[in-house]
Amino acid sequence: MHFMFILYFKAIILAIVQGVTEVLPISSSAHLAVLHETLDFQLDNNLLFDIALHVGTALALAFLFLPKLRKLWQDKALWLKVVLGIIPAVFVGFLIEDYAEKLNDNLWVIGIALIAGALLFLGVEKYARPRSDDLSKIGKMDAFVVGCLQILSFIPGISRSGITIVAGMSRGLSRRLAAEFSFLLAIPLILGMGLKKSLDYWQGNLFLKNGDVYLFGISALLAGVVAYFSAKYLLKFLEKYGLQFFAWYRILLGGTIILLSLL
User: What is the tally of structural domains in the chain?
Assistant: First the structure.
């Protein structure tokens, strides 16, 4: 009984952190990798647990952006731009999937990526000049450039939301529009990744135990609820304060991780 309480307590912490960091540009993969180690949270299906958390956040984003998703189905041009934005990541993801997963255990890579991403944040805040604040005004080349730079998010610590917001702002999108487009790209990407990984496990005859099903389900639901409110208030925060706060947080976290890896 005590063991199950501790297990669920640790899972709840991971779910809350995932819900916050998936939408904030501070890298959910970096936070989950560090927390798995510091909390000693190890399951037979660690990767599948993390994917369940990601799927929970993707469903929350889909619910939050339901009106825009309805518009997406009616607007073929916007649908095409979303497709252009996810194709590069899907293509490269299949090629480097196994290698990218191994990077999650490399604290040096995570720390350096966090700091590198922070420098990009500071740079885009200083030099970007927003020209558009309307989803319909996103160009096909804008979407493709965002999609290409999204490939960098396979490096743990870069942050998928962070690099896509930076890419969008560098193409003249406002902070809010860049974040909204980032979230729209996240929904099919994360759900597709979750489906693929689930199929991989089933094909390998790896199935969840009954206890794991409840643990995964509750954690994914909690991550989704937290992500919903995180995304909702992130848009307001970005409009008012920009990326600088997240940049300095990333530098502090990245530096701390590098120092700890040296001990």
Answer: 1
